[in-house]
Design brief:
heterodimer, A: alpha/beta, Rossmann fold, Arc Repressor Mutant, subunit A, 5-stranded parallel beta sheet, 9 helices, about 55% helix, elongated, B: alpha+beta, Heat Shock Protein 90, 2 domains, 5-stranded mixed beta sheet, two-stranded antiparallel sheet, 12 helices, 7 strands, about 60% helix, about 10% strand
Chain lengths: ~200, ~375
């Protein structure tokens, strides 16, 4: 599926101009007049990122972010604002926003940001898919590996042979496509931090 | 300006009867009313005999004089009232066991009247002070409110214009990117540029709307005697000048031609310049004098000059003096002089400042004369 850039802004002129700009870089764009419109039409299975205006009548950009968090929807979000408001930017970034950009913005930098947001989304989706392959037993083992426990300890806790633990570890590394234990830990931490299932 | 003139403290009674308003019209009227009252009370007191005492009524003239004329006059009235009582008492044939007691009674009465007048005078002064504080507070409040309103409007305007301008930037960048990529479709480019133009037009329309909003009041220009207009405007600045110990002097030139002016606008200019001048001399201890002069300028203009003896203006400030939002005052908005310039230019005149070698600055503004007479 091609990733989609979602643009939410109440100003039709600005919305359409952003679409024109992003399409000049061969990005697929969907535009929405407000938060409610976006929530109605958004399909979570479609990869993508969200560009949203902070100030909108009805549902503001920050309120939309809250609503997405409440619904458990994770989409990389870039806020656009007409005036730099530091407090607002801090609040948004704390809740997981990628960036806070002031209008008018530099097109190159904006497109770079969007591309990196889309890459991040793709990586996170890929990781989710790989984690989904793990069995219940493998997740038990993985949790203990992440906690830094030795194979012997894990075997004792789960009442299985050390050999079996080693076997599970090998399967986990294969399924998650990582080579070293360090990569494994890194992947798990990143994935859990992103809050995806 | 209007609010200043119509401002009345809620502490003062607003409604006077016809009679009361005649009494309060001037100190002289109040004084003569008080004297008449004293005579009337004395006469009635005499007619009714000493057993039917009316001396308490003398508080009314004492009160009137204290409130409307002043402390010294009130003490005078107290003495007159005491004398009136003394002779009435004597004429009515009031017998005392010892003649000294009449003097003693008179002395007590005088003391009570005087104490009453002094206390009342203090009370009145305190009320006046609180009145003044109230007005100052109100002025500060109004200035802050104005500042907030202007800030709010500027921020809203910035937001509204930023939208279409950002869109124009996006459309332009979109065109540039397509052109640089080498596979641009002319049809598509034309469409994008069309949209960019529409957005630019939208920004223009917003500015147009603001202009219409600002120019809501149609200027009302009429042939005007500038000297009388200046005189009149200065008359309501005198209180302000006196409060800051500034002597306000007006030196009109005679035989000036009339000018075609909107009185309210020109008043605004004069008020702004005079207020600035008074403020400029805030830290000057000696010769706080603000001179306002009129003159014929090159035969075709009438010039008004406002000279202060303040600290003057440094070269850097002088450059930006008439720019909007430029200010040297901590609480200023930086709109006063820029408004003055707009008004002067609107009338076809000019405004400028010249430093005074003796210290201080002179602001001049000119208005075109209706018919130029030879000076």
């Amino acid at each position: 599926m091609t990733p989609l850039v979602h643009v939410v802004d109440d100003d039709p002129g600005f919305r359409d101009s952003l679409r024109s700009l992003l399409e000049s870089d061969d990005l697929a764009v969907a535009t929405y007049a407000g938060g409610a419109d976006f929530l109605e039409r958004y399909a979570p299975e479609q990869p993508g990122c969200l560009l949203v205006d902070v100030r909108m009548p009805g549902m503001s950009g920050l309120q939309l972010q809250d609503e997405l968090l409440r619904r458990g929807i994770r989409v990389p979000t870039i806020f656009i604002t007409a005036h730099g408001d530091v407090a607002m930017a801090v609040a948004a970034v704390r809740k997981g926003a990628l960036d806070f950009v002031e209008k008018p913005f530099d097109d190159e930098a904006m497109i770079r940001r969007i591309r990196s947001a889309l890459d991040g989304d793709a990586a996170a989706r890929d990781a989710s898919r790989r984690f989904a392959l793990l069995s219940a037993r493998e997740i038990e083992v993985l949790d203990r590996v992440v906690e830094g426990k030795l194979n012997k300890v894990i075997a004792e806790e789960l009442c299985i042979a050390v050999k079996t633990v080693e076997f599970h570890r090998k399967r986990i590394m294969d399924k998650l496509r990582v080579k070293t234990s360090a990569d494994l830990i890194h992947l798990v931490v990143e994935h859990r931090f992103s809050g995806r299932p | 300006m209007e609010h200043r003139l119509s401002f009345r403290s809620p502490l003062r009674p607003r409604r006077f009867s016809f009679f009361a308003s005649a009494v309060t019209a001037s100190p002289a009227a109040a004084m003569s009313t008080s004297l008449a009252l004293v005579v009337l009370i004395a006469w009635v007191d005499l007619l009714t005999g000493y057993e039917f005492t009316l001396s308490i009524l003398y508080f009314v003239p004492v009160f009137l004089t204290t409130w409307l004329v002043g402390g010294r006059a009130a003490i005078g009235i107290s003495m007159i009232a005491t004398l009136a009582w003394f002779f009435t008492d004597q004429l009515a044939g009031h017998e005392y066991s010892h003649p000294f007691y009449r003097y003693w009674e008179a002395g007590i009465k005088l003391a009570i009247f005087v104490i009453f007048a002094v206390v009342l005078g203090r009370l009145k002064a305190a009320l006046a002070r609180s009145d003044e504080r109230l007005q100052q507070q109100r002025e500060r409040l109004e200035a802050t409110a104005k500042l907030v309103a202007v800030g709010e409007m500027a921020s809203m305007l910035a937001h509204q214009i930023n939208q279409p301008l950002s869109a124009v930037v996006n459309y332009n960048r979109s065109c540039l990117r397509r052109l640089r990529s080498g596979h641009a479709d002319p049809e598509q480019l034309a469409e994008i540029m069309e949209q960019a133009s529409q957005e630019a037009a939208r920004a223009g329309a917003i500015i147009q709307r603001v202009r219409e909003f600002v120019r809501k009041r149609e200027p009302d220009r009429r042939p005007t005697e500038l000297n009388s207009l200046v005189e009149q405007t200065l008359s309501f600045m005198r209180a302000e000048a006196a409060k800051h110990n500034v002597a306000l002097k007006f030196e009109p030139a005679h035989g000036l031609p009339q000018v075609d002016a909107d009185r309210i606008m020109i008043e605004q200019v004069i008020v702004n310049l005079v207020k600035n001048g008074i403020e400029a001399m805030k830290e000057v201890g000696w010769s706080r004098e603000l001179r306002v002069a009129t003159a014929l300028d090159e035969g075709r203009f009438v010039r008004v000059s406002v000279s202060d003896r303040g600290r003057g203006i440094d070269a850097e400030s002088a450059e930006h003096l008439f720019q909007p939002f430029f200010t040297t005052k901590p609480e200023g908005m930086g709109l006063g002089l820029s408004v003055c310039r707009s008004i002067a230019e609107f009338h076809g005149g000019e405004i400028w400042a010249t430093p005074d070698p003796a210290g201080g600055v002179t602001f001049h503004f000119t208005l075109p004369a209706i018919q130029a007479r030879a000076a």
